[in-house]
Amino acid sequence: MSDGPDELWKRLKAYEGQAAAVACVGKDPVNAPMIRHWCEAMGDANPAYEGPDAVAPATMLQAWTMGGLSGHEGRTAAFDELMTLLDEAGCTSVVATDSEQEYLRPLRPGDEVTFDTVIESVSERKTTKLGTGYFVTTRMDVRVGEDLAGTHRFRILKYAPSRGKQKARRARRPRPVVNRDNAGFWEGVARHRLLIQRCTDCRTLRHPWLPGCNSCGCPEWDTVEASGAGTVYSYVVMHHPPFPAFTESDHAADAAGPYAVGLIELAEGVRMVSNVVGVPYDKVRIGLPVRVEFRTHEDEEGALVLPVFRVTEGEA
């Protein structure tokens, strides 16, 4: 890095509180067709998203602020300047680390969305397994008129990749993001149990896990254990350069790529995404019967258990 760490951090901190975008206007008003496309993609049939009193799914908050290829008027130079400063300091790589949304007002068809974005914080220099760099957090405030509809925080790590000689070790496999809403699912997976959330009011099953029922809105829930049987509802074939965490895996034959990622419809009626294994990727077909299989991956951080779906014997 060109500057000493303390001096560079002082320069980076000067950007905290600066606007990255001011009074930007959404490309389109909140509208029923986009809500319909979103709900179809998510498999969400909540009646609250249809009809004359429809609201938009809260998780669409960022969708109404997307700038597309042409971007938005109202962007300032502050964020680009900050990124350039980090690039010049050797932090040329970037990875998104997490995002948070808070919903304060429902959005309805016809609402015109405006938003401002501020550079909320820049962390001290951090050393991670990816390299050394800085966490940058931006906050977007989304409004309809004078009303604050929601906020969206987005955090990235801008870092200089690790380069020095390192001792030989098995590459770290990426971990799933575990939060307060889905922790129970991953705790079940660790015990080789595939748990589905169930609303305690209307008894609707749901996946992925959510803080409340998307059919009746009830926040109370329990779980049922899935049988593990299912069928391939849809799938894609992934092609990417070799990644050591997968090619050095105990199950490298299924994970080195290309490989099939399936949308699996479980016997209980919900759908989930995971790898389809047990047949070559070009033999995967819609309707193929599968059954869950729990795989344990070992690396320097310990054991990681993941559910995959194996084609039922005799169907390969």
Mean pLDDT: 89
**How many H/I helices?**
6
Largest sheet: 6 strands, antiparallel
CATH topology of the largest domain: Thiol Ester Dehydrase, Chain A
Strand content: 35-45%
Q: How many beta strands in the DSSP annotation?
A: 14
Q: Quaternary arrangement of the chains shown?
A: single chain
CATH homologous superfamily placement of the largest domain? Hotdog Thioesterase
CATH hierarchy, class of the largest domain: Alpha Beta
Written as H for each helix and E for each strand, in order along the chain, the element string is HEHHEEEEEHEEEEHHEEEE
- Radius of gyration using CA atoms only: 23 Å
Helix content range of the residues, please? 10-25%
Number of domains: 2
Structural class: alpha+beta
Low-confidence parts: none
Distance between the termini: 53 Å
Overall spatial form: globular
CATH architecture of the largest domain: Roll
Short key terms for the protein model shown above:
Thiol Ester Dehydrase, Chain A, 6-stranded antiparallel sheet, 316 residues, 15% helix, alpha+beta, single chain, 6 helices, globular, 2 domains
Structural description of this entry:
This protein is an alpha+beta fold and 316 residues long. It has two domains: 5-161, Hotdog Thioesterase (Thiol Ester Dehydrase, Chain A, Roll); 183-311, no CATH class. 15% of the residues lie in helices and 37% in strands. It has six helices and 14 strands. It has helices at residues 5-13, 32-42, 78-88, 183-190, 244-247, 252-255; strands spanning 19-25, 93-103, 113-122, 126-127, 131-144, 147-161, 195-199, 205-206, 221-225, 229-238, 259-266, 271-277, 289-299, 302-311. The strands form three sheets. Strands 1, 2, 3, 4, 5 and 6 form a six-stranded antiparallel beta sheet that branches. A five-stranded mixed beta barrel has the order 10-11-12-14-13. The longest helix has 11 residues, at 32-42. 21% of the residues are buried.
